[in-house]
Specification:
This protein is mainly alpha-helical and 233 residues long. Helices cover 71% and strands 3% of the residues. The protein contains ten helices and two strands.
Length: 233
């Protein structure tokens, strides 16, 4: 589960915008450095909202809204780009003056949605879901998966942009849809003490709670409040 979370965090395409944003903006005949700087600022400042919302709105809620936003923006970029843009040399051109600003706004909106959700919250989940005895090694493994996904995005994005252009965003949109499906399945861990998070996932996976009682001597429960959750105001 942790490996899947980390791989999807990369495969939704955020680092495609971080690494190749200047190329994308330049291909739209825009000032690459200026718009990349704006994109980086959106990413930086949007991340701070997760510090507050993770314990108020909840981890799952942030992942859900984040994934929905990424799906919508990716498919909008792909659809508009394929429909209205044609490549002339190294530049994507369109006869619609309003099209480039719309694409840019979708990029910024994608970055915003990633920055408050799938960017930071994946690391929160990976720090919570593993038993204490194995947590360090498991988190290390998930971080390795993150870098494998990072490598894949860095390696293949230039090729995809060259070969299929705006169709690249459809691929990121599909991975964002998978991220949405996984976020729908994940249980909420807001307010749950770390020692009890494992029981939530055991019950989510259908593991016999009575076996858990015999093994730990503790009572199995089904609601987050019973796991030691504390109200956050």
């Amino acid at each position: 589960l942790g490996v899947t979370l980390q791989m999807l965090q990369q495969l939704v395409g955020m680092n495609a915008f971080m690494y190749f944003g200047p190329r994308i903006f330049q291909d739209l005949d825009l000032n690459a450095n200026r718009f990349q700087a704006i994109s980086n600022c959106v990413n930086f400042f949007s991340t701070f909202s997760a510090l507050y919302l993770a314990d108020h709105a909840g981890r799952k809620t942030l992942l859900l809204f984040s994934a929905v936003g990424m799906v919508v923006t990716c498919f909008v970029m792909g659809s508009l780009g394929v429909t209205f843009f044609a490549k002339t040399g190294d530049v994507w051109e369109t006869d619609k003056a309003w099209m480039a600003p719309v694409i840019v706004s979708m990029i910024f909106l994608f970055v915003f949605n990633f920055a408050y959700g799938w960017g930071p919250i994946v690391w929160v989940y990976c720090g919570e879901i593993f038993p204490l005895r194995y947590r360090a090694r498991c988190v290390g493994l998930t971080a390795t998966a993150n870098w494998v996904g990072n490598w894949a995005v860095a390696q293949f994005t230039p090729y995809l942009l060259e070969e299929i252009g705006f169709g690249t965003f459809y691929i990121f949109g599909i991975f964002s849809a998978f991220a949405l499906l996984l976020a729908t399945w994940l249980p909420e861990t807001k307010g749950v003490v770390l020692e009890q998070v494992g029981q939530i996932f055991d019950e989510k996976l259908g593991i016999d709670p009575h076996a858990m009682e015999k093994r730990t001597g503790s009572k199995s429960v089904t609601d987050a409040g019973s796991y030691g959750a504390v109200a956050v105001s």
